[in-house]
Amino acid sequence: MMKYIYLEESKLLYDNILDKECKIKYMKKNVRNYFVHIICCQFTSVETLKENWRELVNNVSEVVQKNLKELIEIYNVYIVFFQSNVEEVLLYNIEQNKYSSRKFVISQEMPEDKMELEKIVDSKLFDLKIEKDDKAQFCFVDKMNFISDLTNKNHETEIEKYIEKNAREIINEKN
Questions:
Q1: Which residues of the chain does CATH 3.30.300 include?
Q2: Is residue 24 exposed (0-12), middle (13-18) or buried (19+ Cβ within 10 Å)?
Q3: Who contacts 125 (Cβ-Cβ below 8 Å, separation ≥6)?
Q4: Whether pLDDT at 1 is above 50
Q5: How is the beta sheet containing 23-31 ordered, strand by strand?
Q6: Angle at 12 between CA 10 and CA 14, to 5 degrees
Q7: pLDDT tens-place string over residues 136-158
Q8: Cα separation of 10 and 24, whole Å?
Q9: Where are the alpha helices (DSSP H) in 34-128?
Q10: C-alpha to C-alpha distance for 40 and 105, rounded to whole angstroms
C-alpha cells in the first residue's frame, strides 16, 4: 500500500456546505511521479448529501483542481462519497456527473481510522483485478474461424485460400 498525504486545504472545501456536521478529508497519493487527489466525504444524511454534493464538487474544482499545474493531476481528481442507503437515482446522478472530477458513492460509513479509509480508497481506485478470459475467441467474420483457431498452424495458408476463393467468386459474378 502506498502512502497518502493528508492536506489541510480540506477546511476550504466546506465553503457553502449547509451540512456543518459533514466530514471531509482531502488526501493525495503519489503514483508514478504524479499525484492522484482524493476527497472523501460523508454527509450526515442522504438528504444533506442530495442538497450539498454539487457544492462540494464546485469547491473541489475551485480549491483543488484550479491550483493543479500538471495535466495528468488535473484529470486525476476523485471524490468518494460515503453514504448508506442512497437511492439509485441519486447515486446515478452523482457518479455520472462529468463536471470537475470522477465521483463514487460507497454505501457505508466513512471510517475514522486513516488506514481503514486508505484501504477502501485503494480497493476502489488502485487495486485493479483483471482476469484473463481463457475462453476460445471466435472470429466475427463468417467462415473465418480458422483465424482464431489456436490449434491451426496454417493460418497464412488458410487466409490465402479464403481470399483466393472470394476473389474467384467476385470475378465470376462480374463476368
A1: 4-125
A2: buried
A3: 36, 38, 78
A4: no
A5: 4-7, 23-31, 34-42, 77-82, 102-106
A6: 85
A7: 555 555 566 656 665 666 767 77
A8: 6
A9: 46-59, 71-74, 88-96, 114-125
A10: 10
Q: Report CA-CA distances (Å) from 89 to 45, 53, 98, 105.
A: 16, 14, 16, 12
Question: How much of the chain is helix, strand and coil, in % rounded to 5?
Answer: 45, 20, 35
Angstrom distance (rounded) from CA 88 to CA 85:
9
Tell the CATH topology of 4-125: GMP Synthetase; Chain A, domain 3 (3.30.300)
Question: Mean pLDDT, to the nearest integer, of 72-99?
Answer: 96
Query: What grid cell was written down for 15?
Result: 465553503
Handedness of CA 146, 151, 152, 153 (dihedral sign): positive
